[in-house]
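Homework-ish question, so no full write-ups if that breaks the rules, but can someone show me the predicted structure for this set?
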Amino acid sequence: MAAYGYMLYFRGTPLLVQLFLVYYGSGQFQPFSGELGVWFLFREAYFCAVLTLAPNTAAYTAEILRGAVLAVSRGHAEAARSLGMSGPLLYRRIILPKAFRLALPAYTNEAVLLLQATSLVSIITLLDLTGMARIIVARSFEPYKLYITAGLIYLVITYTFVLVSRRVERRLSAHLREQPVGASAAQPGAEQKPGRADLTGEGR
Amino acid sequence: MLDLHGYGRMLWQGLELTILVGLGAMALAVASGLLGAWGKLSHHRAGRWLAGTYTTVIRGVPELILILLIYYGVPTFIQDLAARAGHDLRIDLNPFVAGVVTIGLIYGAFATEVFRGAFLAIPRGQIEAARAFGMGRVVMLRRIVLPQMWRFALPGPGNVWMVLIKATALISVIQLDELMPSADIAARATRLPFTFFFAASLFYLGITVVSMLIQGRFEAWSQRGTRSVQG
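A: Not a homework solution, just the prediction itself:
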């Protein structure tokens, strides 16, 4: 229930609000956090950005992993149980390795969206790529040149990352591609093929 | 209604504008999504190339950069062009229109994939059967393709909507007084930033939860007359 509420809140509200809540909202508790001696942390935009982005992406990742664990075919888990594996051992040896492979494409999407989401930290005064572009625009009054350049840089990082991740996926699922003819993938209990990273993740 | 030191009404008005921007952007996203899917599936190489570039670029660049580019970049670009041609031009985009257009175009790229997938999910045999009955393209689209595409695609636009409404928070950077700036003004005036941003976040959460419930209803409705997976 707590996990459900956490995931609903972080996935159901805009990241920008979450950032403001931590960066500006923490000011409301300044006397309290000052007493605890942690106020100097909340004064730092960088700390606030990390403190917001980490639980945010964790909520999306939790949803991906949940789906992947549920997608591991029942037969595998049952076979492992019949061999006497249970609990942590079953998860460590059977379910998690399969789930991670199934989750990889979706996780790549999530990582790309996180990368793009970091552009929001420029709104809470951090000078990341977007923040720098905005500062230079304010001085040079050449918005389209700078924003197009920044956009291209993001574009290159994004697709480089996607390409690398696709290669990793190919390697990890090699045994699924080179099946002998006739061994149909549609057999009950056959291993599911993971999808492809295609940038269709859940946005902020 | 909740009062929030007298700022409840202001937040409420901000919420109205947020929803208005969301609805306008959603309409544009569905339109450009259908257009994009049509391009991606078309036989013309130019159509495929255009639609492919559209989705590739939009999905590879952060929304914030695109918003800034459209709101600040496009007018200055046109002004520069005009200046080069010897005209003195001043263009100011309306933030509402700029917001709707940007968010709509961004999520149109996501809708493109949704509609493309839904179209591909229709069994080829049905298209062939419709052709064999002598249906033309339009009749086939209306009788066979769209009714089913709707069903396959429904979770998609629902998800696009939920992501899109969250993205509207970003257009506060182009000075549109939607929910975020309203909360910001109230937070500054009362010095209760946590209270107001938390209230704003609950408004967004409310939109998400209501949308999820409506989506569930719609899905159940669109699945009527089909067998569920459980049999």
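Now go work out the reasoning yourself. Hint: Chain B touches chain A through 47 residues (CB under 8 Å).
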